[in-house]
């Protein structure tokens, strides 16, 4: 087994502690102070001169899975990174690297999925790049999508509401806006995507009817921001809820208390993670959002989420607290445990 201290391993790309340490050690030195929300924030997008900008590469295995494919994943993931900043996504680039011998029928299927998902999200594919590598030099196909967006009118309204109860340094959805007492809301059931990927893999020996939740969430976020009072939002992809909430706790300097009994999860997902010995909080998702909302607006935001097809299973799962450190989970039997940042995603290559 490769030594993660001396070489790059799969752990370094899995969204947990190893990846965060790698970014801080090697890539954070590239930060030169540029941008309203710059590289130093280490969020999923940046803001430069009022434009939200993000990029992501997709290496999911298998490329076709229950409920989606690598094309739908690429569009949805980049759209969501913009939407979670409070941006209104406008346009995407599309870069594809394929191995020699890749079936044109599979490429046509992926391109059609990209087209349909872009139409669903109301974004445009405006530029791109294509490369081909020697056979066996690549695992079938890798897709990179970059995206741009602008501040929506809904975002401006959101911060008008938020400013009634606090000072706001950044008028974008970032962890520094989180305050003591904010409610933590998740937009739907957790773990669907990771379990769908696992059950789609050959040789895993595990079957499930769970479909991936992969979907663009920009329309849902506009509905939420129309209500107002959202301090931050993020989609719990690699590393899941555990990584996301630890990131918020670290960047806000506050503790987060959540209740296991309030976390929405499908019964089939619960059975799967028990069978496989996985931690629900560490499973990646591609169609869910976690929101930190001012307590005065939490019920209104929850109601707005539940009125949409993407947030019908939304629930308040906890709150931000200044009297604790890190992330604390109250278990279903009433105990408490510290939730740490995962080492890596227990299901690698889910996106």
TrEMBL record:
Pfam family, one: AIRS_C
InterPro entries (UniProt xref): HypE, PurM-like_C_dom, PurM-like_C_sf, PurM-like_N, PurM-like_N_sf
Protein name stated in the entry: Hydrogenase expression/formation protein HypE
Biological process annotations from GO: protein maturation
Boundaries of every PurM-like C-terminal domain copy: 179-323
Source organism per UniProt: Sulfurisphaera ohwakuensis
Domain (PurM-like N-terminal) ranges: 43-151
Stretches assigned to coiled coil: none
Family: Belongs to the HypE family.
Alphabetical list of NCBIfam families matching this protein: hypE
Protein origin, superkingdom: Archaea
């Amino acid at each position: 087994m490769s030594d993660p201290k001396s070489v790059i391993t799969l752990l370094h790309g899995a969204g947990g502690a190893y990846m965060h340490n790698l970014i801080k050690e090697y890539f954070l030195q590239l930060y030169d102070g540029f941008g309203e929300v710059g590289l130093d924030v280490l969020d999923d997008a940046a803001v430069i001169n009022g434009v939200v900008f993000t990029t992501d590469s997709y290496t999911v295995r298998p490329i076709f899975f229950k409920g989606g494919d690598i094309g739908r994943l690429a569009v949805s993931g980049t759209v969501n990174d913009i939407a979670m900043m409070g941006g209104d996504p406008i346009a995407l680039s599309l870069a594809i690297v394929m191995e020699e011998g890749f079936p044109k029928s599979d490429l046509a299927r992926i391109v059609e999925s990209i087209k349909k998902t872009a139409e669903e999200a109301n974004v445009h594919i405006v530029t791109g790049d294509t490369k081909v590598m020697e056979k066996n030099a690549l695992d079938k196909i890798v897709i990179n999508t970059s995206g741009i967006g602008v501040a929506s009118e809904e975002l401006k309204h959101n911060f008008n509401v938020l400013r009634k109860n606090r000072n706001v340094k950044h008028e974008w959805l970032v962890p520094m806006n989180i305050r003591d007492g904010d409610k933590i809301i998740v937009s739907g059931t957790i773990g669907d995507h990771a379990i769908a990927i696992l059950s789609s893999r050959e040789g895993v020996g595990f079957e499930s009817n769970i479909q991936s939740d992969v979907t663009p969430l920009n329309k849902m976020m506009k509905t939420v921001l129309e209500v107002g009072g959202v301090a931050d939002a993020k989609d719990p992809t690699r590393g899941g809820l555990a990584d996301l909430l630890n990131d918020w706790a670290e960047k806000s300097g506050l503790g987060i208390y959540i209740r296991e009994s309030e976390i929405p999860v499908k019964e089939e997902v619960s059975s799967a993670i028990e069978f496989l010995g996985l931690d629900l909080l560490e499973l990646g998702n591609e169609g869910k959002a976690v929101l930190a909302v001012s307590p005065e607006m939490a019920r209104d935001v929850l109601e707005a989420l539940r009125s949409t097809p993407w947030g019908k299973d939304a629930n308040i799962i906890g709150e931000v607290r200044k009297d604790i450190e890190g992330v604390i989970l109250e278990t279903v039997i009433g105990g408490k445990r510290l939730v740490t940042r995962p080492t890596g995603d227990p299901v690698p290559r889910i996106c």
